[in-house]
Design brief:
2 helices, 176 residues, 7-stranded antiparallel β-sheet, globular, alpha+beta, 7 strands
Amino acid sequence: MKKIVFFFVLVTFSVMTSFAQKNDKVKSEEIKTIKTNFSRINSIKNWTKIKEVETDDSTEGGFINYYFLNDKLEKIVVRKFGESGQYLAEYYLQNNKISFLFEKDMTYNVPFYRKEFDYDKSEIEENRYYFVKNELVNLKSNLDCGAPFANYYLEEEQKRVMKDFNDLLKNSKLAK
């Protein structure tokens, strides 16, 4: 009986390991495709149109740039400035869907108007979100402690990013 249980556990572990490796291989190929798209977009030198829209949802202002190539939206860049930090988000599109998001959130050591302000003492959080068909497939963070992100956290991040992205898409229609 012990041999049968051991065999069952061994087969189950083998199947699960095989599935995880296959899933990792698919994920690796998807990430490679996303990175190729990222490089393609960043290599574009002559955009057909860049439309800048000012935002007023931060204390020191900000802007959203929509990058179009032949009337197709390829990239969105959001910059927001505040007295105690700044925020950058770069959205990369593929087939009119989000493919990649780079977020950089900088928190100053003190508000920029105080004499103790030191840009080099700012705390910086950088996150990289990888999407396939508007579904978050991977998240990398410079604050990552090495443990996998909890599923509920990934689900909440996907909801937040997709809401922000969809709001930006609605505004892009106005930007044309």
